[in-house]
Amino acid sequence: MAAPKKGRRPAGGQSRPGRALALILIAMVALTGGMFWSGHTTPRLGIDLAGGTSITLKAKAEPGQEDAVNETNMNTAVGIIERRVNGLGVSEAEVQTQGRENIIVNIPRGVDEKQAREQVGTTAQLYFRPVLTYAPSQQPAPTASSSATPKPSASGATADKGKGDGAKDEKSATPSTSASTQGRAVSEALKAPSPTPTPSGSASGTPKAPESPKPSGTPDAAASALEQKFATLNCLDPKQRAAAGQGVKPEDSTVACGKNAIGQWEKYLLGPAEVDGKDVEDAKGEFDPTRGMWIVNMEFTSSGSKKFQQITSKLSQQQEPQNQFAIVLDGEVVSAPSVRTTLSANAEISGSFNQKSAQDLGNILSYGALPLSFDTQSVDTVTAALGGDQLEAGLIAGAIGLALVVLYLVVYYRGLSIVAILSLMVSALLTYVIMALLGPAIGFALNLPAVCGAIVAIGITADSFIVYFERIRDEIREGRSHRPAVERAWPRARRTILVSDFVSFLAAAVLFVVTVGKVQGFAFTLGLTTLLDVVVVFLFTKPVMTLLARTEFFGGGHAWSGLDPKRLGAKPPLRRTRRVSAHAAGPVDPKEA
Known about the structure:
Shape: elongated
Radius of gyration: 35 Å
Structural class: alpha+beta
Low-confidence stretches: 4-8, 10-14, 139-185, 193-218, 576-585
């Protein structure tokens, strides 16, 4: 008989379970440390648990333009409404489409319901306003004692001040404006009846202060008040950003906030609106292969072309920053291109755009011309007390379900229940930490359906343990000793667990794709816990069983281990049967013959 090869691993064996345990321990420590480092130690609660307001909006198109209610326009509307809600100082608001023509807005408690309804239920206001001056929000405003920093311009019709690439245009270098001239120009522009600054400059390139017109438009007191408001405006404060341009008529000057290319807030002092968003016929972000860059192309209506031609004719003669016009959406500056020549029907905004930023700006510009409006279908308010009651009820249901599972494991599997309980604890810890991290990362909110998904996952996770335990018991019933039984049972149990979890994950994925709203919370939690079940079973349950099988309590088949051969009705050892068979098949003694 051939001698067995040394170092051969038994079927389904795992020679080093410590590696798997070390790996999952490192993952748990890293995730837990990341949770405490981020400062978000509790999962973010949804509106049904934390309380708040849920608003359902239905889109409607103007007569004769029914095809305007489409996926692209609805997604753009979602982005606009989300900007509005966040302008109220709410960072946890949820805005999403439901079906073809509905938008659901979930706003947590702490936000004025009336103000929220006004913000999300009105059509977007898009205006083109001339820039009088601007300044970083954290620094004093450039009044008579300071000057605005000149912005470089890129080649093309217009260059996006907020997203410029920083390359200076050598052909049209702009001399800096003196502090006193800049202050007088801003003051006179506010007082002048003309909505744009008066052209200034001389042949020598030295800018001059514009002639003082008679203040027939805005009174001196109103102009001074607006300059003071600009000087004290802090765009780092969400409430001040939201209130900066609220209630301002298109024909009035105003202040506004906007982000520059590196994401820093800047404040603007803007003149009266020259072009309305409805004057934009179309706008889209496109890639220019000749220059290898993303640009935004705009097309205006016939009336819009005349208006845009007039304002660009005036602005193209100005120095920085008064040669810029701000694209203002709902009181916030989304872009502030500089003008280098007179434009009319078509215009181009260029700078260091990427695909997303160019397409987003194109969608925003197009939205001002969309024939879309929204009707409020329903407004549901959930109090914090009701949300707390629902959360308490969900936790009680989960605790009851977990207690029943543990009781069943202890009664039926005895010592093996220790492995199952430890595995459930590891799975619960990973689920909690990941949910806490996903809140600030992707905006995941734990709602009541998500809690239900976590409760259902208890049964799925326990099912995996039961499958493995029963496979081990089958091997022991066949007459194998405990250590080989643990290793031989794993390949068969592994296949069953993977197939079962794959079916559960597939169902969760399909449910997540085909549903909207809170049901997606159930599907997401179910899918997440199903994936964690695979991780826990492979990296914790199986290695722990391998180590316990080497102990006297489990390896020796103690009566309370759950692996007692007598209780399982085990057959005689297979090795003894094989020895007898081998002896019977051996050579026959000639004498006996």
